[in-house]
Amino acid sequence: MSYEEPKEKQHRNQAPSVHAESIDLEQINGSGFDFYSANSDYVGSTMINKNHEIVNYRNSSTVRIWYNEQPDNYPLHWHNSLEIILPVSDCYYAVTNETTHCIREGEIYFIPSGELHVVYPPSVSNGVRFIYLFDLSVMTHLKDFAGIQPMLSAPFLVTRKNSPEIYSDVFDLLMQMQIEYFRQNLYSELTVYSLLMTMFVKLGTNYSNMLATADIQAGKQREYIKQFNDLLAYIDEHYMDALTLEDMASLMGFSKFHFSRLFKDYTGYTFCDYLNYRRIKATEELLPRANLSITEIAMQVGFSSISTFNRLFRLYKKCSPSEYRSKMSIHTLRKR
Hints:
- By secondary structure, this protein is an alpha+beta fold.
- The chain folds into 2 domains: 9-210, Jelly Rolls; 217-335, Homeodomain-like (Arc Repressor Mutant, subunit A).
- 43% of the residues lie in helices and 15% in strands.
- Strands 3-10-5-8-11 form a 5-stranded antiparallel beta sheet, with helices on one face.
- The longest helix is centred in the middle third of the chain and has 24 residues, at 188-211.
- The two termini are 33 Å apart.
């Protein structure tokens, strides 16, 4: 995928932000708030190797929050972090899946780990935005996290208009996170992650409710959400086994065809695609281990064919398993 600045950029930037949220940071944070000393450890450069950005977290933590007012464009890249963009003044642009998104003031854009993207400020006014980067590996082993994995498999936007039930809560939680981070309070990283988990609960509940199909009776909706969240947790524990659609349908007590339809409704994936996605995600932790060959890793996560593994890995991660291993080795050396 190549990146070109949209021809309509100048025109769109000058259009009024009719849906913008007014954000008064002085009212939220207090006057004279210090947005810079918390990130004073930053060396001033970003390592991008074949589109892979190595995120430099603060002091070997797993969180980095930027108060960003830079005029720079960030070229096509991906990283292992969840990225959240929240413009404070003016808009900000993100290109994902070859589509340009104008993120307006107060809107919240989520970019999952592994997603190729470009981000840049408007040309007329640089604006200001918060950029949140989180290493979610500390959460992925929690049983309930499986229920929100499908939600975090593609970029999405949260605004007051498209998510009126949760927008204010998500916005407030992100504001609390940046206050904790920049004030560098005692246990700030732990507090930030507790706020992040609260946000995921709200987002996950809202996501499940939206995905419920219209033909499901109201009394069945909560029951089905619980069943499918439990099923995703089961897949999390057994993805390396020879799971079949027929077995999962039987486990749920549905016919194969009814199960296939409901699974797609509740996750956005076919069962086969989700199982492959989960297996590829598992390799992110295994590939940096030099004592395991790539073939051993492929078999360990449940692939019976190395060629299938290589093809799917490149599809999901935009590079080969060996390229990914090389990049993560660089990351490991830098963190020591």
